[in-house]
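It is worth pausing here to work through a concrete case rather than discussing structure prediction in the abstract. The textbook approach is simple: state the sequence, then state the predicted structure, then interpret. We follow exactly that order.
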Amino acid sequence: MSETIQDGKLVELTYKVTDKKSGQVLTMVDFPLGYIHGHNEILAPSVHKELEGKSAGDVIEVPIDGNQIFGPRDESLVVTDHIENVPEEYRQVGTSILMENDKGKTHSFIVTRMDDKTLTVDGNNPLCGREVIFTLEILTARDPTEEEIKVGGAIVPDVNVNEALKRSI
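Step two, the predicted structure:
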């Protein structure tokens, strides 16, 4: 019988996030994501709670209201500027830009729109204002090794990351 997810267990899983309204897949992780349950939570607390008691092979769906996790959208974080004011390397939709204000506080923005004259960035989390479904497939639930406890997750044997990324695209 497979072990169940509980505090102290090594968990490896893959997941996808789907917009509940449109059915569009917003993001997905095909390469196993590993962590020690109850020690280094890497997903929303409500997702971790739903994982408890599940076993390898289980697939679960967890509805998430982005407003509860990230707060409501803040339209003051959406900025449009003349494209000539934006450095060339940021002129692509989907590019992430880390900006710093005059007080030294940083915030991440994503380029969301661009045309011949303007470029728009959005500092809201992409899940703000959305209801999404996290679909998680549990691959592993077991006791971690001492080394895995030290690093907080699964240790991947000598994998060429570039090759792994190429295979997942």
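Step three, interpretation. Residues 74 and 140 are 38 Å apart (CA to CA). The longest helix spans residues 161-168.
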